[in-house]
Amino acid sequence: MENASNALLIAGAVLLAMLVIGVAMTMFNYLITVVDDSGGQLDAALIRSHNEEFTKYDGTVMGSDVKSCISTILSYNKNIAQAEIKVSICVDSLYYVDRELLGSGIVEENTINMSNNIKSYYQYTSKFDYSNNGAITKVTFTKI
Description:
Blueprint: H1 2-55, E1 60-62, H2 63-79, E2 88-91, E3 94-97, H3 106-112, H4 114-117, E4 123-130, E5 136-143
Parallel strand pairs: 2-5
Antiparallel strand pairs: 1-4, 2-3, 4-5
């Protein structure tokens, strides 16, 4: 009789341990889902703030605004860590900042000649290219 009661106690303890482990696994899976969802919201907030840097140049802008946009993008690309949200800028088919060629020295020469090519009194229209995640990757200005 003593062995049977000990066996029942052991079986009850095993069942209780399995129940505790099952509850812990359920809570862990729930918490992982919450953390993953909040990470997606953080990415959305980062992309939204990223796009706000450049959407102020949307529509018809003056040449001085184009120069300001180029300066903004140059400093933005230097300060941002994620390569996938670095931005290119093209004015009348001439790249001033190309995210594919950053650091190569090819595009920096165009930036030095920016004052000769872009006059403050010219008017330009803007167009934005977006990545798959919705971040602006290229700003194109075309002289009107």
